[in-house]
Amino acid sequence: MALHHVLAAKHEEIVQRWKLEVRGTLAPEAMPTLELVDHIPAFLDEIIAVLAADRDEPQPSSQAPDAESSTAAGHGAQRLRLGFSLDSVVREYGALRKVIVDTATEAGARIVLREYDVLFDAIIDGIANAVSEYSHRRDAELVRQANEHFAFIAHELRGPISSATMAFELLKRKTELPASRSVGAIERGLHRATALIDQTLQTARVASGVELHRQETTLKELFDDVEIGAASEAESKGVQIRILVESDEPMLVDPRLVRSALGNLLRNGVKYSHPGGVVELRGNIANGRAVIEVEDCCGGLEPGKVEQAFAPFVRLESRESGFGLGLAIAKQAVDAHAGNIRVQNLPGKGCIFVLELPAGFESA
Fold first, then answer.
1. What are phi and psi of 76, to 5 degrees?
2. What tens digit of pLDDT does each residue of 205-229 get?
């Protein structure tokens, strides 16, 4: 009798023997049976289907073999949730192979070499898919925990830094601080620390996968807000900010995230533009998508910077100070809206940062 026929006939027995094999060793005795064996019957069906397919025997479509078993992937995700170690997940599949071979042998089946090969390949594929999903979910959880940790630290630092900044500004207004390089260094340090904390909180919020808080707004409202935030630096550098809105239908987005993206793009444009230049912020809504462009006059990007533009901690110009997080934060905000962002380099003139995101209510 072919191996797959034996396995089909002994299906329930194999599952029960596997349960006894792993309970108390790989799995806690107290684990509910339903969760312990949740994916194994379906994975056994897949093995039977693979063995039958190798013999060119038709199987029901529900048991058709799958090169990338979603059953094994689901098993890996479940085992992570239940607190299994990665080596336990691997050994579970080893236990299943042993039970299959023992059960078939005791039933008098003569397993040929080809069937051993197919069985082992199926088990190895199952291990690979389970481990891959387990690792993917574990890494995602570690990233989430790291974001929460960074956000907590940034939030705790925000209070004392804010208090120190307010105290410093108060002393300046009372002219109790003499003008000096040291005082200027303290002021710049406080402002940079505040900016870094705010950027860390924004990054953690976007990267944590928190659900978007969509609200109705318009391009003009968003542009007005971000222009105010960049106006002071633009004035001090002698850079003009020009606003152009072609069409301004209502859009449903997370205003805080979009303002963060636009604010970083506009401030970068002002920061890198030559004195006396113009930074143009323009936008249009058409076919359910908002297209926003920020064009500066920085003279163009250095070779290799276009590809790195949105990577964290990359500064577009080495001569400028900063943490190199602005464009990375803008990209994260756009990604959270399922949009996209790109840069067009204009050598000798400047750059155009193009931001696109769904704007219609049907995208919510």
1. -60, -40
2. 666 555 578 899 999 999 998 998 7
Q: Token digits for 205?
A: 């919020």
Statement: residue 64 has pLDDT above 50: no
> Structure pTM?
0.48
Domain annotation for the chain: domains and CATH numbers: 3-142 (1.10.490), 215-363 (3.30.565.10)
Number of H helices, E strands in the chain: 12, 7
Please provide the DSSP assignment of 182-237 as one string: HHHHHHHHHHHHHHHHHHHHHHHHHHTTPPP--EEE-HHHHHHHHHHHHHHHHHHH
- Which has more confidence, 250 or 232? 250
Distance of CA 216 to the CA centre of its chain: 25
Q: What share of the chain is helix, strand, coil (3-state, %, to 5)?
A: 60, 15, 25
Distance between the two ends of the chain, CA-based, in angstroms?
57
Q: What are the structure tokens assigned to 75, written together?
A: 């098993």
The rounded distance, in Å, linking the Cα atoms of 135 and 265 is 35
What pLDDT, in 10s, does the model give residues 281-329?
999 998 889 999 999 998 887 766 665 566 554 455 554 544 345 677 7
Question: From CA 245, how far away is CA 260, in angstroms rounded?
Answer: 19
